[in-house]
Design goal:
Structural class of chain B: alpha+beta
Strand order of the largest sheet of chain A: 6-5-4-7-8
Distance between the termini of chain B: 12 Å
Number of helices of chain B: 14
Structural class of chain A: mainly beta
Number of helices of chain A: 1
Number of strands of chain B: 14
Shape of chain B: globular
Largest sheet of chain A: 5 strands, antiparallel
Strand content of chain A: 35-45%
Shape of chain A: globular
Largest interface: A-B, 41 and 35 residues
Helix content of chain A: under 10%
Oligomer: heterodimer
Number of strands of chain A: 8
């Protein structure tokens, strides 16, 4: 135990923009729902959302809602951010349950960074950011 | 020894002094780049008026946030006419490949004396927080909120996976930092000339765990230019020509946008993304990794040296840690001396150009840390979003 608890960047400092391909993801997050882009033709998942399916080139899109559980594929313990010297972030790349092949880059919070491991199970929570949007973050699955 | 006879050669290189971040001011970027271009043509025995082509990389980026403009170079340097002006896309991945772009122009008959130039001045924006400073857009909105604020932060995530998959130890990254520092000690222009120990490495500040300060390249200022021309023209010039044995740029979709995407399949995730380019490069050159005498591997972050050693076949995939820890990359006593100039970790960082400069000096036989009887040098561009690139330089026309 290091006694440190990993945080995310202060919400008011986090800005996103959207386009027609990505907006459904962020609109769902506003409602505390984690969705993912799935090809409406062949069923292949992809993130971040882009116009074409790389497998079949279809533009048909589906946005299935996921369980919100994920597995840590890799991560970094980041010490400091420009303007926030002392913050500790666990930035992580996650495999999303129910959407093989689609990954999400996020932060794991409410955890001692020393307890994070590749393969660890985490679950989503939604945190307010600038302009009324919400950002999916993750925390260890409560045992 | 090599595949086909070379058709182009590097005939001149020019460099400014090297400075710590921001200290080249009040020289402008155009002045820095112009100084390097004038030094390169002078060394070659050419006039600046002979330049008729520009082959850039990094989208003609002038460091971070600025762009080079061929017309402005012509206006101020007095270059009367150009017949080629083009760039590789993306970023520092194309550094070595820009010489291939120059070659393409020369072979097509579009130009004859082609300059590649890069300058870096970090007075306005430093490399270390470059991604945090970019305005949000719909694609980076899936990356930027995580707080991975610079390229080293992003690559630390790949490094963690390499350590997990293959048991790679921090001692291997330390050996890269220590051996390259050793190579910088006797270099008058090197920014870092104090030796470092394993203890220093493990005491260094963690920036993005598993990467510490000594895994990160320097933040420096300076400019370097390289002149490429046809083998015929090269024969009459001042320097012994350094032939381009092969050049390649590109890469596979599995790597793609790399650590700005993070969607790579498991084996590619923990790599440098250079495997596809390495295959083409060696095929075009008609040589293999066993034929390379000195490797100038783009070292923005120490683990990427290790992963390039794997992707270029100097050791097997996953065995880079053991290979490096055996002393294999040392200038003295190693089987494949790596970054004999100290690299971007210890000499100076100009987005890959110092590696081309060192490759040229090694092939001329004039390098400060000369590898004895070296006849083939590998030079690489930065593991980053595609295109990545590689270059093999030779000694004999």
């Amino acid at each position: 135990m290091s006694g440190v608890v990993a945080q995310a960047l202060p919400g008011e400092q986090v800005h996103i923009t959207t386009n027609p391909d990505t907006e459904p993801f962020w609109e769902a997050a506003k409602e505390d729902r984690l969705v993912v882009l799935q090809c409406g033709n062949c069923g292949v998942f992809r993130m971040p959302p882009t116009p074409f399916c790389p497998n079949c080139q279809s533009k048909e899109k589906k946005w299935p809602e996921l369980s919100g559980r994920a597995t840590v594929f890799s991560y970094s313990v980041v010490h400091g951010f420009p303007g926030i010297k002392d913050i500790v972030l666990v930035a992580a790349v996650l495999d999303l349950e129910g959407a093989p092949g689609a990954r999400l880059v996020t932060d794991i919070v409410e955890v001692d960074p020393e307890d994070v491991q590749i393969g660890m199970e985490v679950e989503v929570l939604f945190s307010p950011i600038a302009d009324g949007w919400k950002l999916p973050l993750f925390r260890p699955v409560s045992s | 020894m090599t595949g086909t006879a070379p058709d182009v050669a590097i005939v001149g290189v020019g460099a400014t002094p090297y400075w710590r971040r921001g200290q080249s001011w009040p020289r402008t970027m155009t002045e820095l780049a112009g100084d390097a271009i004038l030094a390169a043509v002078e060394e070659a025995g050419l006039s600046v008026k002979d330049i008729d082509g520009f082959a850039y990389y990094s989208e003609a980026g002038a460091g971070y946030g600025d762009k080079f403009d061929t017309a402005l170079f012509m206006e101020t340097l007095g270059i009367p006419e150009v017949t080629f002006s083009a760039t590789l896309t993306a970023g520092g991945g194309g550094a070595a490949g820009s010489i291939g772009l120059a070659r393409a122009a020369i072979l097509a008959g579009d130009a004859n004396v082609v300059v590649t130039v890069m300058a870096l001045q970090q007075a306005k924006q430093r490399l270390g927080s470059v991604f945090a400073a970019v305005a949000p857009n719909p694609i980076n909105s899936f990356l930027q909120p995580s707080g991975l604020s610079g390229p080293g932060h992003l690559m630390s995530v790949l490094t963690r996976r390499h350590m997990h998959d293959y048991g790679t130890r921090r001692e291997a990254f330390a050996e890269i930092a220590i051996s390259q520092r050793q190579n910088a000690l006797n270099r008058p222009k090197a920014i870092m000339r104090d030796p470092i120990t394993l203890e220093d490495y493990f005491n260094a500040r963690m920036i993005a765990d598993p990467l510490c300060l000594l895994d990160f390249c320097l933040e420096t200022d300076g400019a370097i230019a390289v002149i490429t021309t046809s083998v015929e023209r090269a024969k009459d010039l001042r320097q012994p020509p350094v032939p381009v044995v092969a050049a390649a740029h590109g890469g596979a979709r599995d790597w793609g946008r790399a650590f700005a995407w993070f969607g790579m399949p498991q084996e590619t995730f923990a790599s440098s993304g250079h495997a596809a380019v390495a295959k083409h490069l060696f095929r075009r050159a008609g040589v293999g990794p066993e034929d390379i005498d000195v490797a100038l591997l783009y070292d923005h972050f120490s683990p990427m040296v290790l992963m390039q050693l794997e992707d270029y076949g100097f050791c097997k995939k996953g065995e880079g840690g053991e290979f490096v820890e055996s002393g294999a990359i040392r200038y003295k006593g190693g089987s494949i001396p790596v970054n004999t100039h100290g690299g971007q970790l210890s000499e100076c960082y100009i987005i890959g150009m110092t590696h081309i400069l060192e490759g040229v000096e090694q092939m001329r036989g004039t390098a400060i840390n000369q590898v004895e009887d070296a006849e083939l040098a590998l030079v690489t561009g930065g593991p980053a979003a595609l295109p990545v690139s590689g270059l093999i330089l030779g000694k004999h026309l």
